[in-house]
User: Which sequence fits this backbone?
């Protein structure tokens, strides 16, 4: 990795490209009526993935950029779970048949805040309304600090086979600065208990660029994590956007590392994981060589969606819950963010979609290019343009792309764009060269490094 490029490109704010176009470009022009029409028009042989959002936590982590809120009363979460079930039945009713499902993901917030019986009820509803294949990956995000033995039993009985544990950092100084105090012992106990229940797949989430964080503290956290040997890591750069996430104002900007230091932290974590047998995948994931994600990466089958990198081959994702985003062949839809309004809508038999985006052919072309760059570090513009009836010359003439070529970040041979190996940490910058919507949303995104 080249520090000179990190200094040059590191401050630019860019999307993570979990979709294209990205969420800031969604509008109320696509609402509940449009979503209902799209659901009814789905091809009969299409399969889908499912995402369920649980926007509640027991306390706020100050670095968090997710749609979540603090809840003290269990009754609030139980009522929300009932609304989730109502939406599942409502969406399935609009589709009119049981679609095949190979991936289910519970995210948040803290989905393990659900009562075990509520989680079991939701999984039963999903299996009733959809054909969840026996081989399906069923994943859930876990807060080790609040995970109970009763919830672990419910997860195992429901068929959950992958758990994503938030770690971020084990440094006590950093944990206090971000309001997430979580010991290594708590994390190890949660993982051991999940393993004992039969859950075999594990992700750990780490963050660099946090207040008071150093290369040394990053490496110490990695060293502890490696004792537990999860099969995957997600390593994200902290996105400080206090104008949009007001709780981030509790983090002192004077304690945040600058771009060169963030770059050093990112490199140190990546090198330590690779030296320990993990394959670096795309922008921010690492997996053991025998893991299905590493195999998908090596075989060119890796995909990218709202959960990040995935082995999920489906082109469709149904999102359930407040703020949840779905992706259909026709475009994107997003639900009402306010939990009470969301619950009122679905409980009264109405879809909760409040905004979205109808894809154009140009969007589909650029989305395929961007996904291939993010997942494979290259894209054949000629082949992709041929599939979409477009000419690659216009894409090759992008001023941003030509600057990247001049700086040695990108190699262009014929119509094939390849990210230079020592510049792969700037893959978002390369993807951005094909983003026709970028300039109007930069302020909403995180720094490139």
Assistant:
């Amino acid at each position: 990795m080249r520090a000179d490029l990190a200094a040059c490109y590191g401050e630019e704010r860019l999307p993570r490209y979990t979709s294209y176009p990205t969420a800031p470009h969604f509008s109320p022009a696509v609402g509940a009526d449009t979503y209902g029409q799209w659901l009814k028009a789905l091809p009969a042989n299409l399969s889908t993935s499912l995402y369920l959002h649980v926007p509640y936590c027991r306390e706020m982590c100050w670095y968090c950029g997710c749609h979540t809120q603090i809840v003290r009363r269990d009754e609030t979460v139980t009522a929300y779970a009932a609304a989730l079930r109502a939406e599942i039945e409502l969406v399935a009713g609009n589709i009119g048949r049981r679609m095949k499902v190979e991936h289910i993901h519970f995210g948040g917030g803290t989905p393990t805040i659900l009562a075990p019986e509520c989680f079991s009820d939701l999984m039963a509803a999903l299996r009733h309304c959809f054909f969840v294949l026996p081989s399906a990956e069923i994943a859930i995000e876990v807060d080790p600090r609040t995970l109970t033995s009763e919830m672990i039993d419910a997860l195992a009985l429901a068929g959950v086979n992958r758990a994503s544990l938030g770690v971020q950092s084990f440094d006590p100084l950093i944990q206090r600065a971000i309001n997430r105090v979580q010991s290594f012992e708590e994390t190890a106990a949660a993982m051991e208990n999940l393993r004992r229940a039969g859950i075999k797949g594990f992700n750990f989430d780490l963050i660099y660029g946090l207040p008071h964080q150093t290369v040394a503290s990053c490496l110490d956290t990695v060293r502890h994590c490696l004792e537990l040997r999860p099969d995957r890591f997600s390593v994200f750069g902290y996105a400080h956007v206090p104008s949009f996430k007001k709780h981030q104002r509790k983090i002192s900007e004077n304690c945040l590392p600058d771009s060169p230091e963030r770059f050093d932290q990112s490199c140190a974590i990546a090198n330590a994981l690779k030296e320990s047998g993990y394959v670096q995948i795309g922008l921010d994931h690492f997996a053991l060589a025998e893991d299905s994600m590493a195999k998908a990466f090596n075989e060119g089958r890796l995909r990218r969606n709202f959960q990040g990198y995935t082995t999920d081959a489906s082109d469709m994702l149904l999102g359930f819950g407040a703020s949840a985003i779905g992706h259909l062949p026709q475009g994107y839809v997003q639900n009402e963010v306010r939990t009470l309004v969301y619950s009122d809508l679905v409980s009264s038999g109405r879809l909760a979609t409040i905004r979205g985006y109808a894809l154009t052919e140009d969007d589909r072309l650029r989305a395929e290019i961007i996904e291939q760059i993010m997942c494979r570090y290259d894209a054949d513009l000629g082949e992709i343009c041929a599939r979409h009836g477009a000419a690659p010359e216009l894409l090759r003439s992008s001023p941003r792309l030509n600057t990247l070529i001049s700086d040695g970040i990108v190699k262009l041979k014929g119509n094939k764009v390849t990210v230079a190996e020592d510049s792969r940490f700037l893959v978002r910058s390369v993807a951005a060269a094909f983003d026709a919507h970028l300039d109007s949303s930069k302020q909403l995104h995180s720094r490139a490094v």
